[in-house]
Design brief:
By secondary structure, the protein is α/β, with parallel strands linked by helices. The chain has one domain: TIM Barrel (Alpha-Beta Barrel). The chain contains eleven helices and eight strands. An eight-stranded parallel beta barrel has the order 1-2-3-4-5-6-7-8, surrounded by eight helices. Strand 4, helix 5 and strand 5 (127-131) form a beta-alpha-beta unit. The longest helix has 24 residues, at 181-204. It is globular. The protein binds pyridoxine-5'-phosphate (PXP). Pyridoxine-5'-phosphate (PXP) is lined by residues 6, 8, 42, 69, 89, 91, 99-100, 130, 150, 212-215, 233-237.
Length: 260
């Protein structure tokens, strides 16, 4: 399994104090030296973590491919086209959100997504679409010309945490999933089935398949069972662990769980 390590949160910490510490390039080197096959970063419209200069520096210094996530905003797309990452992943973006919520709506935003893919292809940048797992979105992603899809695993991860951790007893409990355990269990199974069926279908129509969002040391084994998924992009859980164990150990441990 290809492991994409998302290092945005290192820049979150830096931006919290508006200083030059921690250095995002240190994160790049440590992640790569300890098993990251890819570095994933998100150039958000509000620049709350990764800055334009980080994108340039990371692409310049990375020995592994850089997967640059971005919205379909035209100004952002022009920057992405100019910086030429190894791949662009199109994600939905709302200013107020804490993190990416849900997959890209490839139906209502069809024309904007098509334009974005064409613009990136003109700069010879392969495109992945971060989408919710369904057969319909796989078909549409293929029709729009993407090379790859990244299946949004947020629903799965939320259900998994509500069932298997103390999340329901904290203030971050996911309100819509405050349900009896048998119901959570059924929904978790259904969410996994949707990921699996979508991965199989996407693969069968020639799309490469990645997955990401909310994946961690406890739930990642479920993704490992789906052969059609060839890449995982993981950020929060790795950086959270690194606070206590250091980034090298945190990446190494995730690497050990994602070897096929
Ligand atoms: N993949 C995509 C497209 C994302 O937007 C994010 C979050 O930035 C991730 C993967 C990583 O998610 P997490 O930080 O929950 O591991």
């Amino acid at each position: 399994m290809r492991l994409g390590v998302n290092i945005d949160h290192v820049a979150v910490l830096r931006e919290a104090r508006r200083v030059n510490d921690p250095d995002i390039l240190d994160a790049l080197y440590v992640a790569c030296a300890n098993g990251a096959d890819q570095i994933t970063i998100h150039l958000r419209e509000d620049r709350r973590h990764i800055q334009d200069i980080d994108v340039k520096n990371i692409i310049l210094h990375s020995k592994v491919p850089v997967n640059l996530e971005c919205s379909i905003n035209r100004d952002i797309l022009n920057i992405v086209a100019d910086t030429a990452p190894h791949r662009a992943t199109l994600v939905p973006e709302k200013r107020q959100e804490v993190t990416t919520e849900g997959g890209l709506d490839v139906f209502t935003s069809e024309e904007e997504v098509r334009y974005a893919i064409e613009l990136l292809h003109d700069s010879i940048i392969p495109v992945s679409l971060f989408v919710d797992p369904s057969i319909k979105t796989m078909e549409k992603s293929k029709e729009l010309g993407a090379e790859m899809v990244e299946l949004h695993t947020g629903t799965f991860a939320n259900l998994f945490a509500m069932l298997n951790s103390n999340l329901p007893h904290t203030k971050h409990s996911v309100k819509e999933y405050e349900l009896p355990r048998y119901e959570l269990s059924d929904r978790l199974e259904a969410s996994l089935e949707a990921i699996k069926v979508s991965a199989v279908h996407a693969h069968s129509i020639g799309l490469e398949v990645a997955a990401g969002h909310g994946l961690n040391y406890h739930n990642v084994h479920e993704m490992m069972k789906i052969q059609e998924i060839v890449e995982l992009n993981i950020g929060q859980s790795i950086i959270a662990k690194s606070v206590f164990s250091g980034l090298a150990e945190a990446v190494k441990e995730m690497r050990s769980l994602t070897i096929r």
